C-alpha cells in the first residue's frame, strides 16, 4: 500500500459508508466518503483517488454507471463494487465494465481488503 493511497467510498447508506470508512482508516488508508456518484464527481477528490469502492444500487447513478462513465472519460481508477442485491447478471456486467471485484453485502472485511490490494496493485501496474 502506498502512503498516498486515497480510497473513495460511495454508498447511499450512511451506516455502510461509516463502516467501510472505519475499516479502511484502521488499516492506514486515507478515505473520502460520498452519498452519491454525483457528489463524488463534483468533488475535487474525484481526481485524486487511488481506488473507488461504490455501491451498485444508488439512486440516480449506479456504481456501474459511474464506472462506465469514468472509463469512457479515460480514467483507469480501479473500482470495487458492492451490492446488497446479488444478481449474477449484474455481477458479470460489473466485471465486464472493468470492476476489479464485486462483493455482496454484508461482506467479510478480509475480502474487501484482498480486493483493495488487487485494485491498488493493478493501479500500480498501469502507472509503471
TrEMBL record:
Per the database record, which ranges form the Response regulatory domain? 6-120
UniProt entry tagged with the keyword Kinase: no
Family matches, as InterPro entries: Bact_response_regulator (IPR050595), CheY-like_superfamily (IPR011006), Sig_transdc_resp-reg_receiver (IPR001789)
Record PANTHER family: CHEMOTAXIS TWO-COMPONENT RESPONSE REGULATOR (PTHR44591:SF25), STRESS RESPONSE REGULATOR PROTEIN 1 (PTHR44591)
The reply on keyword Iron is no
Keywords of this protein's UniProt record, alphabetized? Phosphoprotein
Q: Which Pfam families match?
A: Response_reg (PF00072)
Gene Ontology BP annotations: phosphorelay signal transduction system
Provide the species name.
Bradyrhizobium manausense
> Which SUPFAM superfamilies does the entry mention?
CheY-like
What name goes with this protein? Answer: Chemotaxis protein CheY
Q: Which residues carry this modification: 4-aspartylphosphate?
A: 55
Amino acid at each position: 500500500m502506498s502512503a498516498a493511497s486515497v480510497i473513495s467510498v460511495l454508498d447511499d447508506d450512511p451506516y455502510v459508508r461509516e463502516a467501510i470508512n472505519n475499516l479502511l482508516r484502521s488499516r492506514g488508508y486515507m478515505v473520502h466518503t460520498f452519498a452519491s456518484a454525483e457528489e463524488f464527481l463534483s468533488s475535487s477528490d474525484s481526481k485524486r483517488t487511488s481506488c473507488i469502492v461504490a455501491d451498485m444500487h444508488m439512486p440516480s447513478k449506479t456504481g456501474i454507471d459511474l464506472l462506465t462513465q469514468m472509463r469512457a472519460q479515460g480514467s483507469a481508477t480501479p473500482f470495487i463494487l458492492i451490492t446488497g442485491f446479488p444478481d449474477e447478471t449484474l455481477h458479470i456486467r460489473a466485471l465486464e465494465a472493468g470492476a476489479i471485484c464485486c462483493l455482496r453485502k454484508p461482506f467479510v472485511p478480509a475480502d474487501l481488503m484482498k480486493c483493495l490490494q488487487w485494485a491498488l496493485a493493478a493501479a500500480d501496474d498501469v502507472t509503471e
